[in-house]
Structure formats: C-alpha cells, structure tokens
C-alpha cells in the first residue's frame, strides 16, 4: 500500500507539475525550438535551478510522465499472467497518448529531431527496465535474451499502436505475436537439442 505524501512531497510534486504544464503550454504556443529553459522558469516563476532539479533536460519537460510509464510497466510484471497484464498497461498508455488532446504534442514531437531522439532513448531505457523486472519477476526463468526481446516487443507495441489507424486492434494484434514469442521462450521449449524430431 502506498504511503500518503507528506506536505513537502506534495509541494514538490505540485511545483514539478506546474513547471511541466507551463513548459507544454509555451512549447505548443511558440514552438519547441523557440522556448528555452529560462523562458519556462520565468513563466512558472521558479529559478532555472528548480527546473533542472525536477527535469534533467529540456526534452524531459515534454515527456514528463516518462517515469510513471516505466514504473507502470515494471509493476505489471508482478501481475500474472504476465502478457495480459502488460497488454493492459500498454493499452492504457496508448489510449492516453492517442487522446485528441495529445495530437498537438505528438505533432510537435514528430517535427523535432531532438524530441524523436529523446523518445527513442526513453523507449530503450523502458525496455531495459522492463527486461530486468521480467527476469526478476515470478514465473519460470527465461534467458536474458528472451526477457530483453519480449521487453523490446512490448515497448515497441506501444509505439506501433500509437501510430496505427485502430490503436486497440494494433495492441491486440501485436500482443498475439508477443504471447506466441513468450510461449516459445519457455525453458523446456527453448533448450536446443532436446530430442525433438
């Protein structure tokens, strides 16, 4: 059970959200490249150092739910069966990111090489964190390669579905393949030279 946040933590979370909301408003109003960290700090009425204490880079301001998404994926590993639990999380993330209100944000991301590169590195980081959680999680042991492969497939399922004409159908279709791959990676199936004809 999660402990309720204390006053200091609530204030810190509120400041972080204020900075993120201010940055997104400025980016959408003026264009991502036209806004600097100093502009965000001034508009949010905080010091530049305060911005950097909450966000490691300008790109991170756009992906302010990055840590939350990663934690949701890694927490889903404790739910069993694994693949349906991950499918549910990916579907929720895709629905969040394909809402009408998200369209201008993705248009901005798609138009910025720096943001596209940041998103790609973020997805790789999510995949590595998910692979580690799968390897340490319940259920039969899988090889490191199997855990990393499935984690990459899961994170890529999100990216593919977000861009699909029917995101829900794309999640379902992709997870049929992920489930088949996960089943094929079961230790008793993955052992070479097991005597199968």
Explain what you see.
- The chain has 197 residues and is an all-alpha fold.
- It folds into 2 domains: 7-57, Arc Repressor Mutant, subunit A (Orthogonal Bundle); 64-185, Tetracycline Repressor, domain 2.
- It has 11 helices and no strands.
- It has helices at residues 7-30, 37-44, 48-54, 58-62, 66-76, 82-97, 103-110, 113-136, 144-162, 167-184, 187-190.
- Helix 5 packs antiparallel against helix 6.
- The termini are far apart.
- This is TetR/AcrR family transcriptional regulator.
- It comes from Streptomyces alfalfae.
Spans with pLDDT under 50 lasting ≥5 residues?
Answer: none
| Main beta-sheet annotation | none
Average residue pLDDT = 92
Overall, the morphology is: globular
CATH C-level of the largest domain = Mainly Alpha
Q: Strand content of the residues, in percent?
A: under 5%
- What is the CATH architecture term of the largest domain? Orthogonal Bundle
Tally of distinct domains: 2
H/E element string?
A: HHHHHHHHHHH
Instruction: Report Rg.
Output: 20 Å
Helix content range of the residues, please?
over 70%
CATH overall fold name of the largest domain: Tetracycline Repressor, domain 2
Give the number of DSSP strands: 0
Termini distance?
A: 50 Å
Keywords: DNA-binding, Transcription, Transcription regulation
Organism: Streptomyces alfalfae
Domain HTH tetR-type: 13-73
Pfam families: TetR_N (PF00440)
């Amino acid at each position: 059970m999660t402990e309720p946040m204390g006053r200091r933590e609530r204030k810190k979370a509120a400041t972080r959200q204020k900075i993120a909301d201010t940055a997104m408003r400025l980016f959408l109003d003026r264009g991502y490249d036209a806004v600097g960290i100093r502009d965000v700090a001034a508009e949010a009425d905080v010091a530049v150092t305060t911005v950097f204490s909450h966000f490691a880079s300008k790109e991170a301001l756009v992906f302010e739910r990055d840590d939350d998404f990663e934690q949701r994926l890694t927490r889903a590993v404790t739910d069993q069966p694994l693949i349906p639990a991950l499918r549910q999380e990916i579907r929720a993330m895709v629905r969040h990111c394909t809402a009408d209100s998200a369209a201008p944000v993705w248009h901005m991301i798609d138009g910025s090489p720096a943001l596209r590169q940041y998103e790609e590195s973020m997805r790789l980081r999510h995949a590595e964190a998910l692979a580690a959680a799968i390897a340490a999680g319940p259920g039969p042991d899988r090889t490191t390669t199997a855990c990393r492969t499935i984690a990459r497939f899961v994170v890529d399922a999100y990216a593919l579905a977000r861009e699909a004409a029917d995101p829900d159908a794309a999640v379902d279709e992709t997870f049929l393949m992920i489930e088949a791959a996960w089943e094929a990676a079961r230790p008793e199936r993955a052992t070479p030279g097991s005597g199968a004809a």
